[in-house]
Amino acid sequence: MDYLFSSLGTALGMIMHLNGEVLSAVGTSLYTSVTAILFSSLFGVAAGAAIGLGSFPGRGLAMTVLNTLMALPTVVVGLVLFGLFSRQGPFGPLGLLFTPWAMIAGQIVLATPIVANYTVAAVAGADPRILPTAMTLGASRLSGTWQLLLEVRFGVMAAVVAGFGRVIAEVGVAMMLGGNIRGYTRTMTTAIALETSKGEFAFGLALGIVLMTVALVINLFLHQLQHR
Questions:
Q1: Is the pLDDT of residue 226 over 70?
Q2: How far apart are CA 194 and CA 200, in angstroms?
């Protein structure tokens, strides 16, 4: 227990004194995760609304694919994108491997199915008269869909938060595509894994506290929005 309490004190000291290594990992995590969730929200909400409101052949198959992609192992995503971004891959000349953008690409792949699936659920739970009524009043299908999404905005927000939680806590894609380069692609999760394996438990604990704090703040923000 003394070791645990001692490590906790050291971890809190690192946070209070704004340790440079901690700040670097936190900054990289937030930058990649926020960028990825912005793209995932655009793609995922659009896809979710289209599937949720559509009645087209293959809709069941599309839902099955979305459900499957939600459970997609991160190492599989990392493996496929590693092959695409490596020097021998089709996107090798772009030099994306072991950069933040490679990590962002992987996170987009992970988060988009989650956002889309939650959006489908939110749209399916909405009043089915909203879209027909809006179109009867002269709205286009696009603007009518936008009005419906506004009605289920808290469900959409929950979708975005769920996607964000998936990517900010992710390790496999960040490690395989980012390379865990100090001061460049090292995130909170990869730093925790690396430093703890090296015996730097206090450093990993400091990042773990920050990571949990970020998750808490995001969920409190969503909770406040839902009660306004």
A1: no
A2: 9
Residues for the chain: how many in total?
A: 228
Nearest CA-CA partner of 187 in 78, 83, 31 = 31
**Contact predicate 104/36, CB 8 Å:** yes
pLDDT of residue 2: 67
What value does the mean pLDDT take over residues 105-116? 95
Determine contact, residues 120/45, Cβ cutoff 8 Å.
no
Stretch among 58-62, 112-116, 167-171 having the lowest mean pLDDT: 58-62
Of 174, 53, 59, nearest to 109 by C-alpha is 174
Neighbours of 204 (CB within 10 A): 22
- Torsion 12-203-15-218 (CA) sign: negative
Q: Tokens 């990392």 sit at which residue?
A: 78
Q: Please give the domain boundaries of the chain with CATH numbers for all domains.
A: 25-226 (1.10.3720.10)
Beta-carbon contacts of residue 171 (< 8 Å; ≥ 6 apart): 74, 189, 190, 193
Answer yes or no: are the C-beta atoms of 139 and 199 closer than 8 Å: no
Structure tokens at 37: 């969730």
Range name among 83-87, 140-144, 167-171 with the lowest pLDDT average? 140-144
pTM of the predicted structure, to 2 decimals = 0.91
Q: Find tokens 């997609």 and name the residue.
A: 72
